[in-house]
Specification:
TATA-Binding Protein; 5-stranded antiparallel beta sheet; 29% strand; globular
C-alpha cells in the first residue's frame, strides 16, 4: 500500500499539470528551435496570424503572454505543444518556434508551415 501511495504522489501532479487548461509552461523542457526567422511584420501581427491559423486547424484558443521584450504564444489543446516567441528588431520581428518535450508533440513539426505563412 505504501508503494501505491508513493506512485500516486509522484504521478498525480504530472497528470494534473498535463490536463491543466491554464497550460503552464514553467518547468517544461523545450527542444531546440524548430523554426527561426525574421519578419518585416509587427510581432503582434505575427501572433494574431499564428493564433488564427491554429484555430482554423481546430486547436484550442492559444495563450498569448507579453514579455519584457516581445511576446510569447503557447499553442496546445490541454497541454502546451508549441511556443512562438517574438522579439522586435529594427526591421520587424525575430520569430523563434519551440516544440515542448511531450509524448504528444511529435506530430506537430508540420505547424512550421503555418508559422512561415504568417511572416
Amino acid at each position: 500500500m505504501t508503494i501505491l501511495r508513493t506512485v500516486a504522489a509522484l504521478v498525480l501532479p504530472l497528470v494534473a499539470s498535463a490536463c491543466n487548461p491554464a497550460m503552464s509552461v514553467n518547468g517544461m523542457q523545450k527542444r531546440e528551435p524548430v523554426f527561426v526567422a525574421d519578419s518585416a511584420r509587427d510581432g503582434n501581427a505575427v501572433i494574431a496570424c499564428v493564433s488564427a491559423a491554429w484555430l482554423k486547424l481546430g486547436g484550442a484558443t492559444p495563450k498569448s503572454v507579453p514579455r519584457e521584450n516581445g511576446a510569447m504564444l503557447v499553442l496546445g489543446d490541454t497541454f502546451p505543444m508549441l511556443m512562438i516567441e517574438t522579439t522586435p528588431t529594427a526591421t520587424g520581428t525575430h520569430v523563434i518556434m519551440h516544440q515542448f518535450k511531450t509524448m504528444w508533440a511529435g506530430s506537430d513539426r508540420n505547424r512550421v508551415e503555418e508559422v512561415r505563412a504568417c511572416l
